[in-house]
Amino acid sequence: MNRLERDHTPRNGPAVPAPRLSGCDNVSDLLKDCAQMGLLEELRATLGCEAKPDHTDTLQVVRDLVYELAGAKNRDLAVDALIHATGVAEFDHVSLRDYARKHGLSHEGFRKQVLAMQRRLHLPRRPMPSSDAN
User: How many domains does the chain have?
Assistant: First the structure.
């Protein structure tokens, strides 16, 4: 396992190592950096990729969600789209228009974000409440 070793100097205390990551913009950059540093096995173990057979489906769902959110340019928008796409927003009484307004989108623009996420994550389409349809 490759861990950062901090050198102690008598004058400065712990020496801060140079950053190891080149600035990850997406998951593929992160995987490339981990491969260059020899950390892929540690990453797999940390993410639980060696799942038990009965947890494979759950792991795949979690991994899909993490990739979806990590790869989003606007993570706040992605989380709100996921909340609305799954129907969780119904428990908070937040409408599609409220989410759209929060992100500076039209209700139709936010609805398109929700439908795209439902399609990518293979979520069932939910009927829009009448308050969202207007």
Answer: 1
Domain that holds residue 107: 72-123
Which pTM does this prediction carry? 0.53
| 14 closest CA partner among 23, 22, 26, 5 | 5
For residue 81, tell me if it sits in a domain.
Answer: yes
Query: What number of residues does the chain have?
Result: 134
d(CA 38, CA 60): 24
- The string of DSSP codes covering 26-55 is SHHHHHHHHHHTT-HHHHHHHHT-S--GGG
- For residue 27, being part of any structural domain is answered with no
**pLDDT at 58 exceeding the cut of 60:** yes
Q: What is the pLDDT of residue 129?
A: 52
The pLDDT score that the predictor gives to residue 126 is 75
Whether the Cβ atoms of residue 114 and residue 85 lie closer than 8 Å to each other? yes
Domain assignment present for residue 38? The answer is no
